[in-house]
Structures are given as C-alpha cells and as structure tokens.
Amino acid sequence: MTTTKIGSACKAALAVAITGSLFAGTAQARLAGHNVILVHGFQQEDLANPPANLQDVKNAGEDYWRTFWLSRAEARIDWGSNGRIEGGIAQQAYEQMRQISQQGLCNDYCVIVSHSTGDLVTRYLLENQARWLQSEGLQPLKILAALDYSGAGGGTELANLAMSLAYNNSWYNWPLRAAVEAFTGIEPEPGKLGVVNDLQTNTARNLAVGPNSIPRLRFVAGGSSYGGITKPFIAGTDDGVVPTHSACGATTAEGIDSCSSSLSLAGKVTSQNGPDGLYYNHYPVLMNEGVTHSGVLGSETGNISVPVVNNTTLNGLRVDFASRTYNQRAWWQWWGSGDRYIEVPGSDQTDMSNLVYSTLNN
C-alpha cells in the first residue's frame, strides 16, 4: 500500500467543489461509464418485522439508498435480513441477478456498490453467480469492481455477542445487552437473528473466501454509532458496527487500528497496529476517522478522508484522489515541525459517497 504526497491542482479543486455538484436522473446513473448495481446492508427492521414478500424487500432496499446512490444506479440486489446468505438471501438475490442478466445491463461491465453486510453478500454472489446463471443458459454478469463501504465481510464482534446472548442470556450485563440490542433492534432469540448468524467473525471469514479477479475497493469509517455504546465490544477501531479489520479486508479478525501500519484513520503519519495481511484483491482506498457506519452513504460532512491506496488503476478503474501532505503542531508544541498528516483536500466539505463518486467518475 502506498500514499501519495500531492495530487494535481485540478483534483484538489475538484475535491473542494464536490459539495456543490449534484447528479440525478438516469443520464447520470453510471460510474466511469459503467452501470452501477447496489447491494445494501443489514436492516434490523427485518428481524422485528420480517418482510412478507420480495416486493417488501425491494421497497426497503430502495429506501436504504435514497440519500445518495439510488439515482446513480441502474439496478439493485435487495435481500431480507431475516434470511441466511446461503439460503433465502441467495434465492432472492438470484431472482434479481437473472433479470439483470436478461436485460444485458452488465454487457459492458458493471460496478457494484455495497454497504456493510452487503460486502459479505456480494462476495458470496461473485463466487457463485456465473455458475448459477450459466445453468439456465444466461450470460454471467461482467463485474469491473466493487466499492465496499464499511464492509462487513470479516464479520463483527457484535454478531458474536448477539448469538451468545440469544442462547444464554443469564449473565450478560446491561451495557452489553444495550449494545447488542442497538445493533440487532430486538432482544436476541434463537432462530430470529437471520443474517446476524452469518456476521459472526468466524462464520463470515469462512464464507466464499476463494480469490477472484474482481477488485474490492474499501472505504473505511471510524466514527461512533448508537451514541458510542457498541464501541467497547468491538475489537480494535471501528465505526460503531463494523471493526476496522473487517472494513479494511484484513485476513484475520484481530483488532487493528488502521488499514495501514504507518498511517492513522485521521491521516497522521505514525506507527499503527495495521493488518498482517489483506484478502486477495482487497484495496483500502480511503479511511475517515469521523464518519459513522451509515454516514458513509452520503449523510455526513465535516470529516476528513485519508488516501491509502491511490494513484493506481484497478481493473480499468482509475483511482486518483487528490492528496495533500502537511505538518501540524499541537498547541503545546513550541518547537519542531510538528506531526505529519496526509488528507484528501476539501474532503471535509462534502460527504464520502459524493467524494468517491465524483473522483472515480472522471
């Protein structure tokens, strides 16, 4: 992984001006000239009130993306969180993938945008979709790359606790119960946790882990969700739901501080407890210490994004975020040049989804 010092002036100007750019309508529903497919994350409402049919699932999926990505996509793969990935979720996903194939939406390649558990669902679909579609004589979907926001492909410790609480709730203290129920939206019970079963760290890390040729671009958050009550129960840094080890694409579930061993989530150049290794073809592109788990989808501004893997081309998709390196002294530092930082200039003036879309779409 490499970081760059200073990007071009035009990219810097773009980063500052992003907040004023608005894209809407089908004419803009492409990214770098390719159709976009959305795969949403865990929806806790599905556990409390399971959807009655696929139309209910699709209605919820449409609402999920309204903040930014809905108008920039040609298709979605929606799924009910009350199901399991290798069961009902796969069946729902295949029905929609069949339609995408029949419509030829990916004949010129598609880009997948996933969030949270959508990362794990996407990984399973990418491993199996060619075989599924070819069995019916259909063309497999041609996928250029996947953009994974707050990816839960490595699971979360909150799911481990939820499953433990469901089967033995006698000894858990109030803070832990509150954290688990904030995450699941229900009081955990056996047989009612759906995809939370698949989000256990060991389970997630044994699901569809074979390497493939499709790059997974990772966008990592570090803010607080649920008022911060979940953070004490997640290993390493996290976004309130997903641990950094999962969002970065680390090969182990050990708690880490950053996707880089030399750069913090806040952009400070300093030694970090980074991942020992990353899954094949997984690339942490941006980190953002302040944005929350859901805020990465377009609802939060005022947070600095930090480039990690940058100035490169991944399967034809150009990744070239503006980058600025500077030194800053704390108020108590009276001498020296201060600490060194790297950032995407102007990224605090926009939201993370707009920043990514505007950069990769050029």
From TrEMBL:
Protein keywords: Signal
InterPro entries: AB_hydrolase_fold (IPR029058)
Gene3D superfamilies xref list: alpha/beta hydrolase
Source species, domain of life: Bacteria
Signal peptide: 1-29
Protein name as it appears in the record: Alpha/beta hydrolase
Native organism: Marinobacter metalliresistant
